[in-house]
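[agent] plan:
  1. take the single chain provided in the ticket
  2. run structure prediction with default settings
  3. attach structure tokens to the ticket
  4. add a short note for the reviewer (M.T.)
[agent] executing step 1
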Amino acid sequence: MKLLITTRADNRIPDWVALTHPLLKEYAAKVGADFQVIDYVTDCDVGDGRWHYRIMKHYELHEEYDRILHIDTDTLIMPSCPNLFEVVDPDEIGTCCEDKGPRQHARLQSIYFAQQKFGAIGWNREYINTGVFITSKEHREIYTKINGEYWTDWGSDDVHIGYLIKKNGFEINDLGYKFNHMTMFSQDWNGGPSRFDSHIIHYAGVGLFEDAKAQGIDNKLDQAKLDYQRVYG
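[agent] step 2 finished; step 3 output follows
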């Protein structure tokens, strides 16, 4: 079984690369996977899609690799993180679903609007996040355009790929926030768990946790650097 871990990055974010890529490489070696940075220019030139749709490279990469785990560059892997290739069965797609808590309504709206554009497929839950995302070769069709197009409204690749997962009838393993701990999961509706008790912290979007804001941190890179020092010293 040939395994790969990918991440999306380029020379626009050297500080993130310096901070997190050594950890990603170390984790790849630990689980017996190759490591690859996806930095090519996509043919989607709308909004965040120009960077997020780099993940579509997995369609080609799955010709060589049986299983691929994507982890965004704006993440911090904890020493506790287990082997995700063992956590997720090969016939499942491993991800963290976001249609929960205060974000549920907006995420369900995106699911609805995607079907207005591409056609109704009975998709009514499981809004995915590709920040931590694992697939097998049998899933490679989700890394293609829909009717020759990309979804370019809010949510970009998460909505696009989520649509194709549902359309193809693939099973999702919702790994929960412990494998993709974004700020939304530290809020009161979820019991306010500490991000440091999770396996992967993801500084998606603004990416600022409340305790860091209280310390005067005003950007997610400084937040991640502070967290790195706390965890790795």
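[agent] step 4 note for reviewer: The chain has one domain: 3-96+130-143+172-232.
[agent] ticket updated
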